[in-house]
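Entry 12.
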Amino acid sequence: MKRLSRYRRHKAAGPFLMILALLAIGTTFSVASATVKQAPNAFARSAAIDEGKQIFLKGCSSCHGLNAEGGAIAPSLIGVGAASVDFQVGTGRMPMADMSTQAMRKKPVYSAEQTAALAAYVASLAPGPAIPEDSVLNYERDGNTAQGGELFRNNCAMCHNFAGQGGALTEGKYAPTLMGVQPKQIYEALITGPQSMPVFSDKTITPAEKLSLIKWIKSAESEPNLGGATMGRIGPVTEGLLAWVLGIGMLIGIAVWLTTRAR
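Predicted 3D structure (tokens):
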């Protein structure tokens, strides 16, 4: 006790205790601030999940089941991730009235906020692909057009046409055009594989290569069409053949009409 009393009377004891007090106050303030910042985020996420569940029960559960377990006409949504919901609902493909046909791109039924809430709810059911953030989608800076063109021809052209204009598939299905599609939606389609499209995981096509693909598609979208009617940009031979057939057909029709009137 005498030894401790001697340290308390030391002239450096006061400043030392002051420093310790300031460190304790600063640490406590930092921990409290971090807790306060995290709490609103957790509350907002919980509120979005609850809102998404209500939207799901009203607009999606009749096909996908009350717990998103799937049904006779619609698949399970457990594990599909937020990216799949954002793509399907954000492009207006879902909800759809007739599940026996291919989902078509149309005006979205739900707003961006409602779509985000739906995605948050489905993502809370099981892990799955997340919605890519804007920082990940900087294809203009990180993409390579030449590499993207090669990747597209090797992996996408057989369905979407070599110019990304879309094409027919078997059993009445089709690959839609990629012109006018948002970069985020292209990325989401690659990682979720909607409709008949396969899933291109990061092991198959890396995130950097995905950005190159997007950059090439956007480059093809901005190219002027110098051949007149696009016709899927199949080429001048097809356009010439169509013009020839229509032209000859019209001439034959005119000749028959003139012959009929001459009689």
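Annotation: The beta strands are 167-168, 174-175. Residues 66 and 116 are 19 Å apart (CA to CA).
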